[in-house]
Specification:
With 145 residues, the protein is an alpha+beta fold. It has 4 helices and 8 strands. It has a 5-stranded mixed beta sheet with strand order 5-2-1-7-6, sandwiched between helices.
């Protein structure tokens, strides 16, 4: 599936009104809020476990240099040390708590709701290298539409 088609499908089914994108830069952890994740920040890559292809967030150095100018510093890159949760879950927890909310691990799909609700808006939280969706999910959503 082409990158354009994957992005179109993701946007069609996503329940998010906006996004918080996190990244590390010069040993610090940042996040930026955006209405949509720009195509230049996304790649289509082979998925594991027969899931087809992934639409994945991949920020290059020049992207980070540009984004850091309007980003919020959340801490250091060392704050993302994975223990019982992966780095994406730790980042989601940090962002949720930054906004004064209580984080709980969930498995609610992106097409149902965002990761956090801010001022009535569903917001999806993604850390650099996160998967947004895969082709197996697209086919399932299209079948159930």
């Amino acid at each position: 599936m082409t990158k354009t088609t994957m992005i179109k499908n993701y946007r069609r089914y996503s329940a998010a009104d906006s996004y918080i994108v996190g990244f590390t830069f010069e040993k610090m952890l940042y996040f930026v809020e955006m209405d949509e994740i720009a195509p230049r920040f996304l790649n289509v890559e082979e998925a594991s476990r027969n899931q087809g292809e992934n639409l994945r967030l991949r920020l290059k150095k020049n992207h980070k240099e540009s984004l850091v100018k309007k980003a919020v510093c959340l801490g250091t890159a060392d704050d993302l040390v994975a223990d019982k949760y992966n780095k994406g879950e730790i980042f989601e927890k940090m962002v949720t708590e930054f906004f004064g909310q209580v984080w709980e691990k969930d498995t609610i799909p992106f097409w149902v709701q965002g990761d956090i609700n801010l001022n009535g808006k569903e917001v999806q939280i993604k850390l650099d290298s996160a998967t947004l969706m895969n082709t197996k999910q697209i086919k399932k959503l299209q079948k159930n539409a």
